[in-house]
Specification:
single chain; about 250 residues; alpha/beta; Rossmann fold; seven-stranded parallel beta sheet; 8 helices; SDR family NAD(P)-dependent oxidoreductase; NAD(P)-bd_dom_sf; oxidoreductase; oxidoreductase activity; SDR_fam
């Protein structure tokens, strides 16, 4: 129990929940029968497929479309959720995009797009959903970052910068919300077997895996398990942390 209701009766909102880590996170919470909100922007059919899998676990599920660069659309999403009784106790800021290329070749448009989707969306969703958590003196905000936000990566400068910003955002907001019983943490995975790795050919993937002490990429479910742990009521003393499940790649 929290001070309000059992964990299994709470609501989780997963941004970018139509595939990859987001889909695994949504299904992980659905297995408990929790209320699950799957956010997407363009992947309508993929989001519906994730929703069907979640409902097969007995969860109440809602899909919602919104551009996370737009405060107005996020407000409209929040209002729609509240009308349906899906008020998030747990917010998983997962939506994001990667970018590969030399910084000398990056355009302003590419910079703005990566920053907006990865960083601005996290800021706006946290700002607009944390008020209800504060008023209830309970909540969990979990930001999906990246190992590159900790160590940086050649040819991924703007992606590393955006994820590093999420890490700093996480640490600062955790201090701000701790007195209100709301925790804020970040999960910063290493290489994960998702569509984000589709830009690499098999030889490149094999070369990356060979650098990882565990010898392989993570499965999305392994990242989802850590997100789930941070969302538990028993994890209430863990806040402001950047936790990197990376198979020993970065220690």
């Amino acid at each position: 129990m929290t001070g309000l209701r059992p964990f299994t009766e709470q609501t989780v909102l997963v941004t970018g929940g139509s595939r990859g880590i987001g889909a695994a996170v949504a299904e992980r919470f659905a297995k408990l029968g929790m209320n699950v909100v799957i956010h997407y922007l363009q992947s309508h059919e993929a989001a519906n497929e994730v929703a069907r899998r979640c409902m097969n676990h007995g969860a109440k599920v809602m899909t919602v479309c919104a551009d996370l660069n737009s405060k107005e659309q996020i407000v409209a999403m929040r209002d729609k959720l509240e009308q349906r009784g899906f008020i998030p106790d747990v917010l998983v800021n997962n939506a994001g995009i990667s970018h590969y290329g030399l910084l000398s070749d990056v355009t302003e448009e590419e910079w703005d797009r990566v920053m907006d989707i990865n960083l601005k969306g996290t800021f706006l969703c946290s700002q607009l959903f944390m008020d209800r958590m504060i008023s209830r003196k309970y909540g969990r905000i979990i930001n999906v970052s990246s190992i590159w936000g900790i160590s940086g990566a050649s040819c991924e400068v703007i992606y590393s910068t955006a994820k590093g910003g999420i890490n700093a955002f996480t640490k600062a907001l955790a201090k701000e919300l701790a007195p209100s019983g709301v925790t804020v943490n970040a999960v910063a995975p290493g290489a994960v077997d998702t569509d984000m790795m589709s830009g690499f050919d098999p030889a490149e993937k094999e070369a990356i895996a060979s650098e990882i002490p565990a010898g392989r990429f993570a499965a999305p479910d392994e990242i989802a398990s850590l997100v789930y742990f941070l969302a538990l009521p028993e994890s209430g003393y863990i806040t402001g942390q950047i936790i990197s499940p990376n198979g020993g790649w970065l220690t």
